[in-house]
Amino acid sequence: MTAPILEIDIDPIWGDATDWEALSNRAAEAAAKVAPELAHPNLLVSLVMADDEEVHALNKQWRAKDKSTNVLSFPMLAREDVLRAGADENAPGMLGDIILAQGVCTREAAEKGISVENHATHLIVHGLLHLAGYDHDLGDAEAEEMEELERKALALLGLADPYA
């Protein structure tokens, strides 16, 4: 199975006790198994594991929301272009950017009673699905479709249903 190539930038605030690169690549592989449009090694994703302030500034600038959030996804390709880019083995395609906020992720993990690693894995899968064109904000059916893909990807990794 192939998956998008992740270029990872990790703020030191995330710490070095976890192999974030390996965790991120496992999340990408699981996402590619449930969303075949992601199963192409010529797709490139920038994953930034940032602090809350950086995510807050990006959320304010690009989404007009004056607060931090757990994950932001900035697609570079429309869904039909994702499918085309993945099919053309000679043309790498920049799928987009995913940015995680360390403080929000840590707080949410504590509230859910799960590890930060498990929550970050979920958020990376969630972000990748957004980059592939899935959008839970389009309606109930779209939200259920995206959540089901997340459940399946996380189950492949032995992680619990985040929506249970």
From TrEMBL:
<keyword id="KW-0862">Zinc</keyword>
<dbReference type="InterPro" id="IPR023091">
    <property type="entry name" value="MetalPrtase_cat_dom_sf_prd"/>
</dbReference>
<protein>
    <recommendedName>
        <fullName>Endoribonuclease YbeY</fullName>
        <ecNumber>3.1.-.-</ecNumber>
    </recommendedName>
</protein>
<dbReference type="InterPro" id="IPR020549">
    <property type="entry name" value="YbeY_CS"/>
</dbReference>
<feature type="binding site">
    <location>
        <position position="126"/>
    </location>
    <ligand>
        <name>Zn(2+)</name>
    </ligand>
</feature>
<feature type="binding site">
    <location>
        <position position="136"/>
    </location>
    <ligand>
        <name>Zn(2+)</name>
    </ligand>
</feature>
<keyword id="KW-0690">Ribosome biogenesis</keyword>
<comment type="similarity">
    <text>Belongs to the endoribonuclease YbeY family.</text>
</comment>
<comment type="function">
    <text>Single strand-specific metallo-endoribonuclease involved in late-stage 70S ribosome quality control and in maturation of the 3' terminus of the 16S rRNA.</text>
</comment>
<keyword id="KW-0255">Endonuclease</keyword>
<keyword id="KW-0479">Metal-binding</keyword>
<dbReference type="Pfam" id="PF02130">
    <property type="entry name" value="YbeY"/>
</dbReference>
<keyword id="KW-0378">Hydrolase</keyword>
<keyword id="KW-0698">rRNA processing</keyword>
<dbReference type="InterPro" id="IPR002036">
    <property type="entry name" value="YbeY"/>
</dbReference>
<keyword id="KW-0540">Nuclease</keyword>
<feature type="binding site">
    <location>
        <position position="130"/>
    </location>
    <ligand>
        <name>Zn(2+)</name>
    </ligand>
</feature>
<keyword id="KW-0963">Cytoplasm</keyword>
